[in-house]
Design brief:
Elements: H1 25-41, E1 67-71, E2 77-82, E3 88-93, H2 95-108, E4 114-118, H3 124-136, E5 142-144
Parallel strand pairs: 1-4, 4-5
Antiparallel strand pairs: 1-2, 2-3
């Protein structure tokens, strides 16, 4: 066996490999054809007509300025609001006076918002008490005023 030649599986020195790459050229051709079809047919599709209202037809909404309840660091409460004459007024009052003022104000202007502006040193409990009193008097929109940085 020492003299027998080793048979090579490679005849002619070349081997056949299987091709593992995917040919993507046909896929690109199909995609380009689809793109052309969509570009041609897109303008032919009739858009639906919607009759939108114009700004001139819309009824203007009245903007009622909010009542601003200031809670100071010493616990005093002041209320800033626009009176019936349109002039801005500010009154200092107790919690009981605030409750009666808000009840009367809500009877005249039921959708008027109330904004609470509290000093940053005021305890949160005082702010929550005023908020719950406002909600009990029927105020629908209560906000907190903060200083922007």
């Amino acid at each position: 066996m020492a003299g027998t030649p080793i048979r090579s599986s490679m005849r002619g020195g070349r081997s056949r490999r299987s091709m593992a790459d995917i040919n993507v050229v046909p896929y690109i051709d199909v995609m380009l054809v689809l793109l052309v079809i969509f570009m041609v047919t897109a303008p032919l599709v009739a858009p639906s007509i919607v009759n939108l209202p114009t700004v001139g037809n819309a009824a203007p909404q009245e903007q009622t300025p909010p009542v601003v309840v200031n809670i100071r660091a010493d616990g005093r409460i002041s209320v800033r609001y626009k009176g019936d004459s349109g002039a801005s007024q500010e009154d200092t009052m107790t919690k009981a006076e605030l409750n009666s003022f808000i009840a009367a104000r809500q009877a005249d202007h039921p959708d008027q918002p109330v904004v609470i502006a509290a000093d940053k040193t005021v305890q949160y409990d005082a702010v929550m008490t005023v908020m719950s009193d406002l909600k009990a008097r029927g105020v629908k929109r209560v906000g907190l005023l903060v200083k922007s940085q």
